[in-house]
Amino acid sequence: MKKVVIITFLLSCISLIYAQTELGSVVLFQGNIKIKNKNSIKKQKVTVGSKIFAGDLLISSPKSSAKINLIDGSTLTIDASSTILFHSLEKAAQNSGKVLYKIAKRNAKHALKIKTPFAIIGIKGTTFIVDSTKSASVLLKEGRLSIESIKKEFQLYRKKVATEFEAFKAADVKKIQQEKDAFEAYKRRENGNYEKVKVVKEFELTAGNRISFSKNSVKEDLLQDDAEFQYFETLEKAMQ
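Now predict its structure.
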């Protein structure tokens, strides 16, 4: 009986320590942002300096946003109508909304994994946006991401322009600049042509690309501009 009591006490202590593990803090916000602690049924309104602990759920209301600094130097800018659950420095879950992640460089042992409704995203250090709204997409500006299916394997499609460009680069051409210009014009054509690359459980997304999800189908496109990233820059300025 005593052993059971001691074990229960130790488990309670471990749980308490975990709940109090500080992961970061709120450095900017506007509107109505709330945090729900894993051991509480109440939501607390944030202020600048509010701490984020392991197990905390952050919720942004419509027309609200926040910027979080993690203790490793990473930052998260959270758009309106978003929720993110901070399990630890290595694990989080974004269930809704849109978030800009700027993750400090990490080794494989401490890589961050973000679970979304459509995939698990593995990060060692990079700049990207996860959109968990109806559009369900990931936009990668810098670094590399691993994209892992939650359930079924992905039907991965890539725009034909990508593979055609690889062939183009490999060709022995003389008029390089002219052909580069021609290729840029070709890229801008909205031909919507995709080719099925493979069926995979996990794949790698490289910088300068975006992917969109529809059930177990994934389409990869070139990231044509920085509009989404500029949107978050504007959002951060509005919070200052």
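DSSP finds four helices and 20 strands in the chain.
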